[in-house]
Amino acid sequence: MQRRDFLHLAGLGGGAIFSASLAGCAATGLPQDEFYFVQLSDTHWGFQGAPNPDARGTLPKAIAAVNALPKPPDFIVFTGDLTHTTDDPVERRRRMAEFKQIVGELKVKTVRFMPGEHDASLDRGAAFKELFGDTYYRFDHKGVHFIALDNVSDRGTSLGAEQLAWMQAELAKLDPDAPLVVLAHRPLFPLVPKWDWHTRDGEQALALLMPHRNVTVFYGHIHQEHHQMTGHIAHHSARSLMFPLPAPGTADKPVALPWDPAAPYRGLGWREVEAGGKDIERIEHGVNAA
Amino acid sequence: MKRRHVLLFGAAATGAALTSARAQAPREIEITAQRFRFTPNVIPLKAGEPVVLLIRSLDFPHGFFVPDLNLRTDLMPGRVVRLALTPRAPGPLAFLCDNFCGDEHEGMDGHFEVS
């Protein structure tokens, strides 16, 4: 029995399941193993405020839920804004260290971190690099290529010429038919420029990706699910684990939505991503109060 | 937007306004950027009226971005940036800081109210 069959039989554990044609795994004809990973995003550790009265409890709840998955994921990714921003370099490192200690409770020990602007923009990623390592990198897993981008260490939200050159060189090594998953914090396309929901030189990154026929982007930043195609490239944003933001372009400013005591944790969540097979499959989970 | 685009835009706006500029210099509008606010943050303009923005930052390399015009510049503290623009149509025209500047960055914005 495949894992997705098990999930259907098990009622998904509270998640909702979505499939999209991938894009590529079958096209290559290469033997590939199905696997899944978990995406968590925008945990904003250190945030305090009315939008989440359980600011120190929400991430641990998500970690407990991930640890309780019937079959553990192959790895876990955090797509940025691990911590909430602070001007104080000492406090920034303290928040990162505490965050690292808390996510150390994850049973799965292969965890990939990316910075968000709250982590990295005020010091060009210095603290992040000290505690988590490189801000952009590539790795492969069971026939799927992954590339993690940093569109936040530059305070102007640019990838920059150096990273784009690196990206071009890395992509040149890959079979353009092979499945490719891109991880980033901010949207690479201009989702809502008036809310600064874009990457200043994202068009250049997308141009580099266009020759690759099987590309899926997972990102954070906007604190909600959003799904959009740019050409043949699929983009999926993740929910936050601190507070939700308004739907794109529906308010004057992208400020945190109020906590609803009647529906605590509404709008917060995380996802599983099944890859390596014929389809990319997302299973979206909310945060349970229990 | 790259710097050359800002310059080109400025040149285009200046060029378009040359005829009327001979009769009357563009109105200058001073804007101050300081975490996490532009002052003023609501600026009345008239469609077709060329203006020059004189923008300065007091504390941080903020950005000044007008998405609908694809116009942006960095605001280095201690320097006054001059931006020429001529709004073409009535309605709100949003601007914002697009260099992440801290905890309330997301609220650092404003708009031109073009009549």
Describe the protein in words.
The complex is a heterodimer of chains A (290) and B (115). By secondary structure, chain A is α/β, with parallel strands linked by helices. Chain A has helices at 3-9, 25-28, 58-67, 89-103, 117-120, 126-132, 160-172, 202-209, and strands spanning 16-21, 35-40, 75-79, 111-114, 137-141, 144-148, 180-183, 215-219, 226-230, 233-237, 269-275, 279-286. In chain A, the strands form two sheets. Chain A has a six-stranded mixed β-sheet, with no helix packed on it. In chain A, strands 5-6-7-8-10-9 form a six-stranded mixed β-sheet, with no helix packed on it. In chain A, helix 7 packs parallel to helix 8 (202-209). The radius of gyration of chain B is 14 Å and the shape is globular. Classes of the chains: A alpha/beta (290), B alpha/beta (115). The interface between A and B is medium-sized, with 19 and 18 residues.
**Topology, number of strands of chain A:** 12
Which blocks of ≥5 consecutive residues of chain A have pLDDT under 50?
Answer: 5-13, 22-31
Shape of chain A: globular
Which secondary-structure class do the elements of chain B indicate? alpha/beta
Shape assignment of chain B = globular
CATH topology of chain B: Immunoglobulin-like
Largest sheet of chain A: 6 strands, mixed
Strands of the largest sheet of chain B, in order across it? 2-1-4-7
Distance between the termini of chain B: 26 Å
**Strand and helix order of chain B:** HHEEEEEEEEE
Oligomer: heterodimer
Q: What's the Cα radius of gyration of chain B?
A: 14 Å
CATH superfamily of chain B: Cupredoxins -  blue copper proteins
Mean pLDDT of chain A: 91
The top level CATH class name of chain B: Mainly Beta
Q: What Rg of chain A is obtained from the alpha carbons, in whole angstroms?
A: 18 Å
Q: Which architecture of chain A per CATH?
A: 4-Layer Sandwich
Structural class call of chain A reads alpha/beta
* Elements of chain A, N to C (H/E): HEHEHEHEHHEEHEHEEEEE
